[in-house]
Amino acid sequence: MHKVTIRREIVDRVLARRGRYHLFDTLEPAATAFVVVDMQNMFCEPGAPAEVPASRGICAAVNRLAGAVREAGGLVIWITSATTSTGGRTDWESFIRNFVAEDVRERTVEALRPGGHGEQIWRDLVVHEDDLHVRKNRYSPLTPGSSILQSVLSSHGVRHVLVGGTKTNICCESTCRDAMMLDYSVIMVEDCNAALSDDEHRAALENVIQQFGDVMTVDEVIARLAARRN
User: Fold this and answer.
1) Is residue 200 domain-resident?
2) Per the domain annotation, does 90 fall within a domain?
3) How many CB atoms lie within 10 A of CB 183?
């Protein structure tokens, strides 16, 4: 788990701009979804093509928040990345060709095979039978055409989107940005996110708190879920 948090100068900037730091005093549990992004073998397993070592350190926090959201009556949605491959080409060819080195490209494509080992949720995470599983083929599952997540959120009446997973500054931040653009109330849960470095993790938190949503800890989110129930 990362030990850094948002810098004081950014906190002061947010306070000066909107007069308060946190956006939400309460969260309606039935309208809340915890969207857990890419906590799968492809990113969590030691030696995996896109390993994020810090991702293994957030599992306890993810499990704790997922349990609280379920108990409160909210929804837990596990998002996994996968890409199909046909005739030597994938359904995200620009990413595979431009951002994946040739010597690991074949291994990466195999790790992203739908239903394969790389897409399986990491073993330290607790998944319940009532949780939902949504597959995506872009950084954000809310990018048009990337997944059915927007339909799922709409059909379940979700208004508050909690975001955790990996990487903080790529798929998780992209998800926060898109969710805010679609008028969801967004909270990036800082101790449920992991990146390749402290600097990248903190930069994403600071981007989100300034322009795209709120940033809270697991404790702060749970307190707001409980406040609405009380």
Assistant:
1) yes
2) no
3) 8
pLDDT digits (tens, 9 = 90+) for 179-189: 999 999 999 99
The answer to whether the beta carbons of residues 161 and 208 sit under 8 Å apart is: no
Contact assessment for residue 172 and residue 197, using Cβ atoms and an 8 Å cutoff: no
Question: Which residues touch 85 (CB under 8 Å, ≥6 apart)?
Answer: 91, 109, 113
CA distances from 186 to 2, 27, 49, 96 (A): 21, 11, 30, 29
Cα–Cα distance for residue pair 196/192, rounded to 1 Å = 14
pTM of the entire predicted model: 0.95
Side chain identity at residue 75, one-letter code: L
Going by C-alpha positions, the residue among 193, 189, 186, 195 that lies closest to residue 219 is 189
User: Tell me, what CATH number does 126's domain have?
Assistant: 3.40.50.850
- In 3D space, the residue among 132, 135, 97 whose CA is nearest the CA of residue 116 turns out to be 135
Domain that holds residue 184: 8-81+121-229
CA distances from 169 to 38, 59, 92, 175 (A): 13, 18, 20, 10
User: How much is the pLDDT for 90?
Assistant: 83
Residues in CB range of 31: below 8 A, 6 or more apart:
74, 157, 158, 159, 160
